Task: structure prediction
Amino acid sequence: MKAKNTMEAAKLGTNYFLKGVREQTNTLQKLCPLYDLIIGYGSFGLAEADMANKPFISVVIDPTMAEKKFTKNMKLNMGLILEKLALYFLMGRKYEQFRKEIGASPSSKSNNPQLILLPMSQHVVKPEDNWTSRNVISGYWYLPAPSSYSPPEDLQEFIENEEPPIFISFGSAGWSEEDNSSLLKILFEGVQLAGSRAIILNTEKYDSEIPDHIYLIKEIPFDWLFGYCSCVVHHYGLGTTAEVLKAGLPSIPVPYMIDQFAWAERIHSLGVATHPIPRKEFTPEKLSKAITESLNNQVIRENADKIGLKIREEDGLKSAVRAIKSLLNKLDNNRIIG
Result:
């Protein structure tokens, strides 16, 4: 599932989301009444929480999904009107039809979501003037680093052999074998043109010859690896983006679906990444040029290091838990008063 631009990515993401909502609704309708609080991605589980009369917390991975209100700022208001219209025609009508089919009331009658959690850093995303108080930018959510990791001997030798390598990952994209081979050829050639070496995360089958300047690996803890890398080429999913920013490494964005285009533009605007290269326009020559810029542009490297220091001081999970506890206390107090 690949997109050429942000609009096409939005359509793909919307269709994928609605498909998942329909597939899981029966299970969610059975589970929601059993719990005091429902937490879901976006509006996933929202209708079922409403049907069970349960409070719902929405977790969103795109700042444009934050809850907004009308203000005295006419420019922001016009933007919000256009956004609401676009959302309605993109997904709203289909989602309201889904709610009607399962017996949920219209979204306009819902008191949910009670809270919108944005697992991202305030050093990357700033609240807009028209955001409501229900939005909470918690900071990124990181899993604990493995207590111990012993890399394969040949990987350790590859890392220590010459200059720090580049790391390349396109996440769990689920490429076809043909497309994966085509992508790897671009990566092999682009890295070679730049006179660099790379460790590439590759979860697909690949039986062809692997060049000496390339090391393929199926899985590896980023916390351990990024201390040995010079820069990262990746798809700009939220998780990998968070890890790269925390490590203070410059990056090369190659987005291909859903929210990745917006994240690529946002991180580039912070001066810590090269200009995004959409997957459809990805060539060895463009990759080589971006690698050269990423390694030699001192401003990008210094900016990446600075933002990494700030993000490492945050504790996104603790902030998110604090916000959830605060909401639960508020709901308990309201029940007592009621």
